[in-house]
Every structure is written in C-alpha cells, then in structure tokens.
Amino acid sequence: MVHGTAAHGAGHGTERHELVRRAAGIVPVLRAHAAWGDEHRRLHEGALEAMADAGVLRLRVPAAHGGHEADLATVVGVIAELARGDGSAAWTAAVWAISTWVVGQFPEDVRHEVFAKPDVRVTGILSPTATAEPVGGGVLVNGRWAFTTGAPQSHWTTNAAMLLPDRAPVALAIPLVDLSVVDDWHTTGLRATGSVTTVAKDVFVPAERVLRLDPVLRAHPHAAAPMFRAPFVPAACATVSAPAVGLARAAVDAARGSVPASGLREATVLADEAEFHARRTAAVVDLKAAGGEEWTPEDRAGVRRDLGEACLRARDAVDVLGGDSPTRHRIQRDMHALNLHAILHPNANLERYGPVFAGSRHDG
Description:
By secondary structure, this protein is α+β, with helices and mostly antiparallel strands. The protein is about 50% helix and about 15% strand. The chain has twelve helices and ten strands. It has a seven-stranded mixed β-sheet. Helix 1 packs parallel to helix 4, helix 4 (about 70-85) runs antiparallel to helix 5 and helix 9 (about 260-290) packs antiparallel against helix 10. The longest helix has about 30 residues, at about 260-290. The radius of gyration is 20 Å and the shape is globular.
C-alpha cells in the first residue's frame, strides 16, 4: 500500500479552525444557490467555486499532493458548516472527500495523475457492480454503478468492480469522460447531488489504476500519515454524519422568529445531540489513528451506533420545526433522503450495535 509521506496537514490548532472558519464563510453563498441546485438537480457553479476557494475539495488530499490531509474532526466540522448552507453541497463534498482518500491509496504515478488538476473532484461507488476482465496492460470494464454522487460535475471516479476470473473486488481510477452518465436522479431530497448512474462499456483501465479493494478497506496502523491508519468504514461513517448535523442547524437557523420558542428549544437540543454523536465518532477515529490502535468489533459497532443516533436526532430536530417555508421544506426533504441511505438509516445502525450491546462479538 502506498501513501503520502509529507508533513501532515490539518489536524490540530490553527489550520483546523481556519478550514472550518472558511467553510462557515461560504454558507451564505451556498444558501443563495441552494434553490437553484434543487431545481436543476446539480450544484451551481458559484457553489463549486466557493467550495474550491475555501479548500473544501482538498480536505482528504494527501499533503504531498497539495492537500490538507485533514483529520476527521476537521472534516466533520467543515462539512457540517456546508450543510448549514445546502445539504446537497455538503453530501457531495463528503463523497468527494471519501473518494479522494481512496485515490491516496493508489500508486504514486496514479496519485500524481489524478491530483495534478487543482481541486480535482473525485466521486466513487465501492459496490462492485461491474466486471473487470484482464487484457494486455490492464483490464476491460463493463457494468454500471447506481447513485454516483456528483458524477456530472466530477473529474474522476474510484468505482469498484469484480476482477475476473476470481471475482476479487477492485477499485478503479477512471476519468468521468470514459463513462456514460444516465440522468436518472429524480428525487424529492438531495436533488442537487446529481447522484446518477454511471456506465462503463468496454472501458480500458491501465493496470496501475486497478487496486485490490480489500487492503484499501483495512486499517494500516503503520502508515506515515494518520489519515490512512483508520479503516475505511469508520472514517466514512464519520464523514457522512456531518451533513445531517449541518442540516439540523440549518433548520434551526431558518426557523428563528417563525416557530414557538418551545419548538425551537427542542430542535436546538436535538441538533446539539446530533452534533455530539458525530463529533464523538470523529474523535474516536482520530484518536485511534494517531496511535495506530487496533479496531475491535465493539469499536466498529460504536461508530455505527453514533452514526445512526446523529441521523435520528438530526431528523427529529428538523421534523419538530416542520417545513412551512420553502427553505425549511427543502431542508426537511434533504434530511429525510439522507436518513433513507443504507449506511445512515438509524434502524440499520442500531441493528449493527445490538449484538455488541448484548455481549456478542459481532463484527458488524
């Protein structure tokens, strides 16, 4: 496994606070463009430019390639701020952050190729719903990936496939221009994420851009950069909890002066609780990554518990306030769409935690 080895980026002190401050600074821009994105089912170019200028697109890019190599406390803080402006922008930024982290696992030549473009936008689906057939110098890829967030506005994907003949899952670094896009994202919530289907038909991918997926998903306690020491799933869970936190805050902001104080108070408490669970997840992952600590089934289940609780409390906060204005209605639609995601659904996460709570060492 190859990782960046430059001095570590945002993780402590001034730079972390600066990145969160810059994200908070573009909230008005995201809010101004949110209705446009909801109508047109993609992010406004003004929102994309603002996120790039604030450093959002480099959160999980290795420091060796000009990125912030940010820890998860920073990532959660930044993306939660984005969601105060627009839930779709926050969700898309979360997916881009996760996928750029995956690129950081590829060989150096591939990392240089992908990260050569400033503020490159990388999306990806790690469900291997395509096949990769070995041919001279690489693989020939055929298949389709549903729900590829931000694909119409991304430059690369890290979509996964089954490598033939043994059907081992692999991640593939593929330029978006090599894939077809099916415009099938017609939803009530998170509309501007453009989470369409991408299709590969006899797409050639060079061997250096084919990466076995199993090692990517595991922890690498001896990696030079703490960002790469944590296993994929806990890090991804911490990342995708942040949009829910920010949406709850956005609902509270939008409801001030128009709902009874009792409702506003209840929603604020619920939003605080959502933030607690999201920040605890990030803190656990960062702490264990800093020390290269082993992950137990209890640790993993705890992360899933916190993810589910963050989403549940954030949803409840939004529902207490209702959707009586266009802005609050969009926030409510976004929040409910978020809670239907297979990874974020509170009931699914509680089921992951249940066996551990009952004393069974279930890996979850």
